[in-house]
Design brief:
alpha/beta
Length: about 425
């Protein structure tokens, strides 16, 4: 469902313009127990989509009038992410030009131009000839210094540069939760009132080059163009992942405590998910074509406990089933950041070679499934606790084991973990 929803974003951009605005994204709810990969899907989505992406927890928001974050802040945060993303892309395009300008500025500091006295009338010709010679020598010297700078031969040299320093007075604004936007606006206002000052600093050449590079990039970049591109990208391809949706789905029968506010949060979410205009400091953002993907375990509550309007805004539902032993084996071995690979690389830094037999990995997966069935089912997170307990002694002694190869066998796994797995009390508190 997530793959289709992502592809439909691209497909919508290819259809005729008169129909494009009429095609709304189909929002998704992912339902499944903790640890089955709902949040991991969001993480992968962020990397694959290459579009403004924001992950938020529904439990952080409160109804308008209560202390806490208002739901519109998610769109403001998404716009900030879009601005940062576009700015980084523009920096990449302008970087080579900015590097040349920064190099020239640094060379001007390293090789200051000597001032010449005004010559008398009978010395003009001689002085002109001397000036031409000096210019040629200065150019050769400059080229020589430029090569030394690029080869890193000037890295140990100190240089004095002028840097821009904010002149805003240091005043901490303690605003209530949900009023972070006010802090940003106040800082922007102060930055306009108090102009920046320059300060002389003595730094090494590489640091000076980086400071000058950032200054040149900020001069070259077109802020209005960045804002316009970010606004279009957020409105057309933005994705918001709302986690813990079940936490605001209070049962209708229990209208006490925070449940009143929970239903209020749902009502506040409605216009944003359906399509409305949210005011940000970068302009008004339309949410009509932003894709909303929600997730929740729904242990206590059910999707039907959400108010009907919210259910209608999430027409697609994907149910994720609990993980099995075979899933655990794949999780331990297949991903590039698999737990087995992580521990092997961590211990390799100490000179310890860690080898896992295939049967040992199957045994670890089997124990993870068994503990999940007997205690709380926390999904793939159980693998972290089991692996840490299994390799506890090896990790502790690793600094004194340089050059040692440790083979993890099924017998070792059973020996180290079987007693804990057998005891309900021990497994409840340790695994």
């Amino acid at each position: 469902m997530v793959a289709i929803a992502l592809r439909n974003r691209w497909r919508r951009r290819q259809v005729p313009e008169d129909l494009r605005d009429e095609i709304a994204p189909k929002n998704i709810i992912m339902i499944g127990p903790t640890g089955v990969g709902k949040t991991e899907i969001a993480r992968r989505l962020a990397k694959l989509a290459q579009s403004p992406f924001l992950k938020v927890e529904a439990s952080k928001f409160t109804e308008v009038g209560y202390v806490g974050r208002d739901v519109e802040s998610m769109i403001r945060d998404l716009m900030e992410i879009g601005i940062t993303m576009v700015r980084e892309e523009e920096y990449g395009i302008l970087r080579s030009k900015a590097e040349e300008l920064a190099e020239d500025r640094l060379l001007d500091i390293l090789l200051p131009v000597r001032s010449t006295r005004k010559p008398r009338r009978n010395q003009v010709v001689v002085q002109q000839h001397d000036n031409n010679v000096e210019i040629e020598v200065a150019q050769r010297t400059r080229e020589k210094f430029k090569k030394m700078l690029r080869n890193g031969r000037l890295n140990d040299r100190d240089v004095e540069i002028e840097t821009q320093v904010s002149a805003i007075p240091v005043v901490e604004v303690f605003s209530p939760a949900g009023m972070e936007e006010m802090d940003i606006n106040l800082k922007d206002m102060f930055s306009n009132i108090f102009p920046g000052k320059t300060k002389r600093r003595r730094v090494k050449v590489p640091e000076a080059l980086e400071i000058l590079l950032q200054e040149e990039l900020s001069k070259l970049i077109d802020t209005d163009k960045v804002t316009k591109m970010a606004k279009e990208r957020v409105e057309q391809t933005g994705i918001v992942f709302i986690d813990e949706l079940d936490k605001i789905a209070g049962s209708r029968s229990s209208q006490h405590g925070p449940d009143v506010s929970r239903e209020g949060v749902q009502r506040d979410l409605l216009p944003i998910i359906e399509g409305s205009t949210v005011n940000t400091k970068h302009g008004a953002i339309k949410t009509d074509h932003i894709l909303f993907v929600a997730a929740g375990a729904f242990h206590v509550s059910k999707p039907s406990d959400l108010i009907p309007e919210i259910q209608g805004r999430f027409p697609l539902r994907a149910e994720l089933s609990p993980l099995t032993k075979d899933d655990f084996v794949r999780i331990l071995t297949e991903p590039r950041n698999a737990l087995v690979i992580q521990y092997q690389e961590l211990l390799k830094t100490e000179g310890v070679t860690l080898e896992f037999q295939d049967d040992a990995i199957v045994e670890i997966a089997s124990l993870a499934e068994e503990v999940n069935e007997r205690a709380e089912n926390i999904g793939a997170r159980r693998l972290h606790t089991i692996m840490e307990k299994l390799l506890e002694d090896i990790s502790f002694d690793a600094p004194d084991m340089d050059g040692v190869t440790v083979r993890i066998t099924p017998e070792m796994v059973r020996e180290r973990l079987r007693e804990i797995v057998k005891s309900d009390d021990l497994s409840r508190y340790i695994l």
